[in-house]
Amino acid sequence: MPHADFALFSPPATQLDGLLPDWARDLVDLQTAIPELARDARRLAELDCVIGEIPTLHRSVHGDARELVGIDENSVHLVLTSPPCWTLKEYRDSEGQLGHLHDYHCFLAELDRVGRRCFDALVPGGRLICVVGGVCLSRRKNNGRNTVVPLHASIQEHCREIGFDNLAPIIWNKIANVVHEVDNGGGGFLGKPYHPAPFPITLADRLICMFSFVGDTVLDPFSGTGSTAIAAIGSGRHSIGYEIDGHYVALARRRILEKTGRLLCRARFEAHDLC
Fold it and tell me: What does the alpha-carbon distance between residue 238 and residue 214 come to, in Å, rounded to a whole number?
């Protein structure tokens, strides 16, 4: 197997007792204490400071999501990703780019390979969250017929066949004035000074906090510009991300170092290139 000597992702154990304020260690009735804590801005601020002191490990891998080299079984608590949107975007030329597969069934078959690796990597009870929408095919590209391909529904059904238990989807309303991430250090996305950002850090942060705990490991097999990693660092989770496009890998690593430099005093960052 290629890269067989690539070290497994082994984040350090999280020890919170020595970091928590005295009042937090003394909490007994959590069902009563947590709602009260949610209304206490001062104590919430204290806990935010504690999160910044938690030692975490973050790995950026320039590699193929269908292999997920370096991920052991039952080692990930949450998979959070925004997979390629089939033909919705014009993806850069990168070997192995799933967005270049024009046959929908072939595209889903390759996406299934990623899904099976994620299923094996997740601990029992772990969650897979895909941020994805329908793919609109214009009349020009679809023999005069305007239609929407429900990619989200296809992913749900294929994941169910892999072994995941399907839960109710969360439908987000995409605002008209889409946010863009500025790429100050290069040619941007296909010659533009930016690239589209349908997966903002605020959304990643909210989902990570909803579906994982401090000290958990979050995996993003299509890490793109690193939104999942940045959110994980800010919330006291470990993270590992895979990206096939070298341009995005460089952009993600720069964003992680620039936007989270204040927290990286306790967060260790690794960069690995397998492509």
Answer: 9
By the 10 Å C-beta count (0-12 exposed, 13-18 middle, 19+ buried), 41 is classed as exposed
- Which residue stretches of 59-173 are H helix? 104-121, 151-162
Give the length of the chain.
275
In the chain (275 residues long), the average pLDDT of successive 10-residue segments reads 62 78 84 89 89 88 91 96 73 58 82 95 96 72 72 90 88 51 40 52 93 95 93 93 90 84 72 86
Q: Which of 252, 242, 165 is nearest to 9 (CA)?
A: 242
Residue 248 is inside which H or E element, if any? helix 246-259
pLDDT tens for 31-66 read 888 889 889 999 999 888 888 788 899 999 999 999
Question: What is the pTM (predicted TM-score) of this model?
Answer: 0.82
Triad 13, 15, 16: Cα angle to 5°? 140
Domains present along the chain, CATH in parentheses: 16-51 (no CATH), 56-273 (3.40.50.150)
